[in-house]
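New to this. Please check this record:
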Amino acid sequence: MKESAKAEFLIVAAAGAKGLEESAKDAVGLALALGARPENAIFLVAGEEPDKAAETASARFGLPVLALSGAGLVQALCDVFTAAIASVALRVKPRFILLSHTISNMDAAPLLSIKLAAACITGVTSVEEGASGPVFVRPTASGKLLQRISVNSSCAVLTALPGGFPVPEAPPFAPGEITTENVEITDSGMRLLEELAPALADMGLSVADVVVAAGRGIGCPENLELIERLAALFPRSAVAGSRPVCDAGWLPANRQVGVTGATVSPKLYIACGISGVFQHVAGMSGSNLIVAINKDPCAPIFSVAHIGVAEDLAAFIPAFLEEVEKVRPAS
């Protein structure tokens, strides 16, 4: 990248031990929705060894890539990571800096906006056209309300929720040129002691055609039997849970769906007793058909469900299972 290079869009992703983070596609999808193209965008991948991630980004997204490397440049050290990104942004002068909505970027986005005196809008799910530019839509109040926010500053830092901005399977453009750059990391007074890998998402969730998910609304762990019986009606099915259910130990952590768990897109997703906060919806909104069972008719989950059942699941599921048994052919 030339020293004088400018870009309207700066898409930021971290290079980890396994290469490019999968969630980078969410930020790219938001950039494409705003009009990003090879001539006005730069994909910035940062890490101690970003070469592999840079090659993946170039081939997958077809945008010019800047591979930023440096000893100690790791996403876990948020102040170091954002300082390196800010140094590039000050040269590039982008209108939008885009990141995926991950736990790490929830820290990075506001810190980056402070360093650059930029606006910061997190958890964007869609973009609308406004009179003076794009209007960014994000959920609030546990998904019960939507905010529509316009930007009047020269730069805005945005994070994109999973599933909101799909990227075509085929690369949208030809592979982009890769430029490498080394950055000197100054001592921040922090050091990374250890990284503990989270429990791997259950492989059954990623390949299941049907996912039946339990939320806090199931009432007690004993009612998981109903969820399992419902899932057993379908071939290639799996049982999942919301964060409260997994945090309570009712289901293993690797069954969790949402921002801090797995992202799934089965043919059928049945949400049982799940209120529908945006952190959960972000992990399943790409499902082909969403059915919600919740006794609260005002639950946010109904805003994303294709079919809604406003009933007590402890009564509805047994009745449903009974009706299925009546019409199911004898084995």
Remarks:
- Residues 198 and 254 are 8 Å apart (CA to CA).
- The first helix runs from residue 24 to 33.
